[in-house]
Design brief:
alpha+beta, two-stranded antiparallel ribbon, 1 helix, 4 strands
């Protein structure tokens, strides 16, 4: 039994649909469980649903498009990629 919490879904977009799989993007408030969202969508459609893959692309000020691949880091350059916590 899950305890309900208040969340906000700011955007939910269907990216692709190849039955029985679909891909969507979501912009949501913190505390949102995307696995639970997928389950709830399946319950609403009467078909059941679960996640096959989950990729977080933005967290606060951090965006995946700004990420550095691990294989790009070297013992000599990694400090240059650190973000000041201030």
């Amino acid at each position: 039994e899950r305890t309900p919490i208040d969340i906000r879904i700011l955007a939910l977009n269907l990216v692709s649909y190849e039955p029985p799989h679909f891909t969507f993007t979501v912009r949501c408030s913190s505390g949102t469980y995307i696995r639970t969202l997928a389950y709830d969508i399946g319950q609403t459609l009467g078909v059941g649903a679960y996640l096959e893959e989950l990729r977080r692309t933005v967290v606060g000020q951090f965006d995946l498009t700004d990420a550095i691949r691990l294989d790009a880091l070297t013992p000599g350059n990694w400090r240059g990629f650190l973000i000041d916590i201030a």
